[in-house]
Amino acid sequence: MRAVILVDESGSLDDDAVRREKEAAQLLAFSSLTPDSEIAVVGFGSSNGEAGQHAVEVYCPLTKAEPAKQQFFVDCIDRLHRREPSEGADTDHAAAMTQALSILGRAQEGRPSFIFLLTDGRLDVANSPQYGQPGARNTEAQRRVDSQVAAARSNGVQIWPLGFGDADQAALDRFAAGGAQQTCNNLPDNQPKARVVTSPDVVARSLFEAIGSASCAQTTEFDTGKLSPGSPVELTVSIPEISTDGVIAVIKGDSRVEVSYVDPNGKEVGDTREFDGSIFTRSTANGTVESLRVQNPRPGTWKIRLTAPADVPPGQIVGAAAMWQGVLQAVVGLNPPVPQPGQQAVVSVQLQTRDGAIDDPDTLDGIQFGVRMSGDSIEQQTVRLTNDGREGDAVAGDAEYSGHITVPPDAKGALTFVGTIDGPGVVGASTVYTTVVAAQASPITASLQLGRGRGHVAPGGSLTGSVVVDNTDGQARTLSLQLRNLSNGARATIDPATIASQQRGRGEHRLTVTFGEDTALGATSGTVILVDAANPSTVLAWSRLNADVGRPASLLERFWWLWVLALAVVLALLLLAAWLRQTDRRVRDVSDVTVYLSRGGQPMGHLQARSDTGSRFPFVVLDATGVAPHLDHSYGGGGGYAVTRNRHRVLQLRTADGTTRDISAGMPVEIEAGLALTVTAAVRDDQPFSTVPGSDDLYERAGDHRGSADSWAGHGAGRASAPAGSYDPVSGADQSEVTTWIPGGPSQRPAPSGFNPPASPEPPPGGGRSPRNDDLFD
Fold this sequence. Notes:
Layout (H helix, E strand, L loop, with lengths): L1 E7 L6 H16 L7 E7 L11 E9 L5 H8 L15 H12 L8 E7 L17 H18 L2 E8 L4 H10 L16 E3 L5 H12 L3 E2 L3 E5 L5 E7 L5 E7 L6 E5 L11 E2 L2 E5 L6 E7 L4 E8 L8 E20 L8 E10 L2 E2 L10 E8 L5 E3 L16 E7 L6 E10 L3 E4 L2 E6 L6 E6 L5 E3 L4 E10 L5 E8 L7 E4 L2 E4 L3 E11 L6 E11 L2 E15 L5 H4 L1 H29 L4 E7 L2 E7 L7 E7 L7 E4 L7 E5 L5 E4 L5 E3 L5 E3 L4 E7 L36 E4 L4 E2 L6 E2 L3 E4 L36
Parallel strand pairs: 1-2, 1-4, 4-5, 5-6, 16-23, 26-33
Antiparallel strand pairs: 2-3, 7-16, 8-16, 9-15, 10-14, 10-16, 11-15, 12-13, 13-14, 16-17, 17-18, 17-21, 19-20, 19-22, 22-24, 25-27, 27-31, 28-30, 28-32, 29-31, 32-33, 34-35, 34-42, 36-37, 36-38, 38-39, 39-40, 41-42, 43-46, 44-45
């Protein structure tokens, strides 16, 4: 676009209104969807006949709004100010319009021209002598305004007024209606219109909407928040899939506020030039407004994060909004490609962005498109299109719209189909499909098939299809296969380039579309057509080309399930190992052990393992040769004793000389200096043998004390009751029914004279097995 923003500098403004006008001017400079837009900024007041006064001041001459020039715009826009009476502080709309038209001249083909008028009041030149006598000056000035508005219309320049404060709505409406009315589409919302807002606070936002409407772009509502030092604000804007160009505008209020941009995938992209198929252009960050322009933006919700330095006043209002536009093309197809008079044909339309066809019908909500048919001998007709699988539409919901149309019986000569597009935020590029009305049935017909739906291919890969040709007159012909309407960046070739039909009958031919190594990634679309090489304007058959081009999957991506399975196996093995280690620790744990020391059957004391002992209970015998030998815990060093359990739950004793032997719980073991150790252990839930009297005993034979607790019926280990008045070394109490486990002897046999082992209501773990080399469970 080419645009001039006229900014009111009259004395009725306050400082906040001027600040808002500056924001609006920066927004215009930074919000253009294309970097080749040219912007000029002009301030206006009045010239009241005093020396040095000028009704208008060109602060920023017409300049491209490219990144290299954005600091220039920040600096020149900053010169806008509220005029003092000595500078000419009235409101001269006539001089402002004259200056704007002198800058823009006549609108250029393909580059629309706009005047954006920001004013807070009414036309007032009562103090300007150049408009004649004092009583008639405003009338004369209004006549000149009307003349300039008419000149704007004839020059193709649109006028978009934005008023605030005491602005005259009716006068601003005349500005909008008087300028050029042609727009980039046929929607009423894109016609020039005046806006009047009640507060300067929303001037910039309202101008942003006006810029979007003038550009046939769609804008989002501003998401706003309050920014304070140390409390960042996150704002969001949404960009739809149909967008091909977008700009995110941010009103910071203070140039020191820092801004970052995060795409819908969570990638921070503000300082990136290209990423994921998008091209980014970030404006300068030195103004109170900044923006991020994105070509081919990723659709979805974008996040804008603002951070304030410590010296920014709390409660700073910030805002962000998006402007987007979809540049679409309606690709028209006809079947049969060369219809006869009176024949019913199917017209189909597929909408494409610059990156490929749109295959999601929900994306097309609100978009109006269609096809018009005209010809040398027929009047223009409109084709009704549907996407419901009926009336000529092949597949419902595939975003390819089709409809029937009957060629008039008297039609002859050229036949033209034109696709049209209208919709919010949409700029349509019409596609013209031209054919002829066949005077008679064609001697050669064909059909072309390239698969249904969207193919998937890697760069360097190919898609296949087939062509069936029916030759009814036997005349030799050469047919040509061609690719048309390829998406931007798509690189593809078709093979074979020609097909020879040499004789009467039907022939089927294979075709291959091969994508180049340098082809663009992502959605790709186009059309494959078959024409008569002798008459290339005659299309015999055609088919849509829709493909997703992507890099081939890596081994990790292709065999992900194998990696998941391997990970699951490793995890299971780790869990099993952990369980086995835990089980082994529990089996070997000796924290339930108590060791008794005796000499000649007389108790000398006992030592109980601590609850955190684990798999080894170390202890020492102190004063072994003295009169008061006793036990104590060992805290390191050698020469002591230790009780352990093996993996079969058998207790083991390591003696002072370093040897290790299996022991039976409750059985004394002789050690040094006539001393004996007796080890007992609490009955545990994980004991491998039954301790219930009368249960089976694998070692049930006389004199073998390895068996489990049983009634043994006169064999194996016996269960004896201690005589009344025996001493218990654990409690020191008299025990009349203390039982113990001793080798040999009959059931209920008393313990040997002078020995009082500890009371145990149940046999010790392992069934009281004594060590033997032939122990199956050792």
